[in-house]
Write a structure and sequence with these properties.
Elements: E1 5-7, H1 13-17, E2 19-21, E3 30-33, E4 38-45, E5 48-56, E6 73-75, H2 83-91, E7 93-98, E8 100-106, E9 113-120, E10 126-134, E11 140-148, E12 159-161, H3 166-173, H4 180-184, E13 195-199
Parallel strand pairs: 2-5, 5-11, 6-11
Antiparallel strand pairs: 1-3, 1-8, 4-5, 7-10, 8-9, 9-13, 10-11, 11-12
């Protein structure tokens, strides 16, 4: 599961993802991105990679208004089994730029959970593998693909978002590639040594909180 993430380095988006055009402007640095918000998404076009703003929560235009929030995650292992996502694997692949994400770890002998922040060991931007679709009233919506957790994440959660290897991003975004088998091989857990994790304070647990203090290492261990 991936339900909160960060995108704080907006100045490097164009260079990192080879953007042909921004499409829609990126927002201010964000330290607590939550479902249903508008998020920057990279999509492939015949002209090149462009950045668009989409609502985080996968809701095709044909879907009746759901009683629950639309899904924010899609399981890599079952993408082709679910009609909701099957078409997007061929024609709706995208990257969701980020520089970190949060997960909550159980606290021993307590019902409380401690927020943990995960990022690349080198601190660089990365792209979650995502799917997008045209939603109600022509608004585009998206979801982050998840897979089995690697050894860094496994102690706190069974799932983790798919962080694409940079060499796979071009294939994933290529609109000319519609063969599912060709792109599904890109969806795997990140190598353990590329990811680091540390505890942060409880501020991130409220969607109302924002700012760099949310990713500061917690000292009360």
């Amino acid at each position: 599961m991936c339900g909160r993430y960060t995108l704080t380095d907006l100045s490097s988006l164009a260079t990192r993802f080879g953007l042909f055009g921004l499409g829609e402007p990126a927002d201010d640095p964000r330290f607590n991105i939550t479902p249903s918000q508008q998020v920057p998404v990279v999509v492939g076009t015949p002209e090149g990679h462009v950045l668009r703003l989409m609502r985080w929560g996968f809701q095709p235009a044909w879907m009746p208004e759901p009683k629950r929030p639309p899904p924010i995650n899609a399981r890599a292992e079952t993408l082709l089994e679910r009609p909701l996502f099957r078409g997007a694997v061929a024609r709706g692949r995208c990257l969701i730029p980020a520089d970190g994400f949060y997960e909550w770890a159980a606290v021993p002998d307590s019902k409380k959970k401690r927020p943990m922040y995960l990022r690349l060991a080198d601190g660089e931007l990365f792209g979650f593998a995502g799917l997008h679709v045209g939603g109600p009233e022509a608004h585009e919506t998206c979801a982050i693909i998840t897979t089995a957790a690697n050894e860094v994440v496994a102690p706190i959660h069974r799932r983790m978002p798919v962080i694409l290897d940079p060499e796979d991003e071009g294939l994933w975004l290529d609109p000319a590639v519609t063969d599912a088998a060709a792109v599904l091989a890109c969806l795997h857990s990140l190598a353990n040594e590329r990811l680091e994790m540390y505890p942060v304070g409880p501020l991130v647990s409220s969607a109302r909180n924002e700012g760099p203090e949310l990713i500061q290492p917690a000292l009360d261990l």
